[in-house]
Amino acid sequence: MPRYLSLFKYNAEGRKGLMKEKAAAREAALKLTIESAGGKLELIYWAAPGGEYSGINIGEFPDAGSCAAVVGLIEATGMFSEIKVIELLTASEIDRGLGKSVTYRAPGA
Predict the structure, then answer these.
(1) pLDDT of residue 26
(2) Rounded to an integer, what distance in angstroms lies between the CA atom of residue 43 and that of residue 32?
(3) pLDDT of residue 54
(4) How many domains does the chain have?
(5) Helix or strand or coil: residue 109?
(6) Rounded to an integer, what distance in angstroms lies between the CA atom of residue 86 and that of residue 5?
């Protein structure tokens, strides 16, 4: 299954919720949310306060649409000022892509 790295940043409301609920409760909620889409939370790490991001996680999803559904639901909570999602590829996946024959023609060429 494809894996996705997410970098997230809480807004003020999200940080207040984290202070109240604590990180373990937030992690458990994320795990259940990802599982509801057929995925798996592989890891979550929290960043020290004051950094660029609040934390990161890696989730495994059946497909990009499942990941998008979870991220959309999470964004809709209004607790985040930023969420970045990056699909992660293995060496064999990259090598398969690099082994494909592709062509490029510049517009107007």
Answers:
(1) 96
(2) 13
(3) 97
(4) 1
(5) coil
(6) 5
Could you tell me the two tokens for 94?
């990259």
CATH number of residue 57's parent domain: 3.30.70.1060
Dist CA 100 CA 103 (whole Å): 10
Per DSSP, the residues of 9-64 read EE-HHHHHHHHHH-HHHHHHHHHHHHHHTT-EEEEEEEPPTTSS-SEEEEEE-SSH
- 3-state DSSP call for residue 45? strand
Of 80, 87, 75, 78, the residue nearest 6 (C-alpha) = 87
Q: Give the pLDDT confidence of 20-79 residue by residue, as tens digits.
A: 999 999 999 999 999 999 999 999 999 998 889 999 999 999 999 999 999 999 999 999
Maximum CA pair distance of the chain? 60
pTM, whole model, 2 decimals? 0.87
Domain membership of residue 78 as a residue range: 3-89
CB 13 within 8 A of CB 78: yes
pLDDT on residue 104 = 87
95 belongs to a structural domain = no
